[in-house]
Specification:
The chain is α+β, with helices and mostly antiparallel strands. The chain has five helices and seven strands. The longest helix has 16 residues, at 104-119. It is globular and about 40 Å long. The model has no long low-confidence stretch (mean pLDDT 96). Coenzyme A is lined by residues 24, 28, 30, 75, 93-95, 100-106, 128, 132-135, 137-138, 141.
């Protein structure tokens, strides 16, 4: 593995990021079929990501941050919000299977927090499926507070809701 760099996703990265995101969701056991189908065919398509990045205007921020190993994307983190409103909604963090358990996800999460704090957000918030045994310990390690449990939530799955003052 070369040196991992953390960079904003560019237009040139979108197709690769979309492929990685769709591959990860397809092979992650915590998501049920309805969730997998939704993310594969809608939110993780190159067209959706491109549209999201075009929507950045005024104080509205949409962030797609990538951990890159040369030209290869090792991990992606995404989220959105308006700094003056305070809360950055952290939507996704996913690491390519080839780069797991090497500290890439943790580093990307920490750099995302530093970036959004610099933009003026005071808090980050996110959710996880309660059975996500990779993401739950990662959020705990990053210092997130488990604010509550949402039963029968998105796609009828159970979720934890997390927040952290940054
Ligand atoms: C969750 C995910 C992003 C972690 O990425 P990663 O780059 O492998 O994570 P890191 O190597 O930075 O690990 C940091 C910490 O996360 C936790 N962690 C990560 N993978 C874990 C696993 N398989 N089992 C238990 N804890 C794990 C540990 O606390 C770890 O710290 P440690 O190595 O000191 O024990 C990755 O497993 C993934 O992409 N999963 C599928 C997509 C997903 O579910 N994303 C979360 C959506 S809410």
């Amino acid at each position: 593995m070369n040196q991992i760099t953390i960079e904003l996703l560019t237009e040139d990265d979108i197709e690769q990021a979309s492929l990685l995101m769709r591959e990860v969701i397809s092979n992650t056991p915590y998501y049920n079929d309805a969730a997998k189908n939704f993310f594969r065919t809608r939110l993780f398509t190159a067209g959706w990501i491109r549209d999201q990045l075009k929507q950045v205007s005024g104080d509205w921020r949409v962030i797609y941050l990538a951990a890159k190993d040369g030209d290869r994307i090792a991990a992606v983190a995404t989220g959105w919000g308006v700094p003056a409103d305070g809360v950055f909604v952290w939507e996704w963090l996913l690491t390519s299977p080839d780069y797991r358990r090497q500290g890439v996800g943790e580093r990307l999460g920490r750099e995302l927090e530093t970036m959004v704090k610099g933009l003026g957000f005071h808090k980050a918030a996110c959710d996880t499926r309660t059975n996500n045994t990779e993401s739950v310990p990662l959020l705990e390690k990053l210092g997130y507070h488990r604010a509550g449990e949402l039963k029968d939530h998105w796609f009828h799955q159970d979720f934890y809701f997390w927040d952290k003052l940054i």
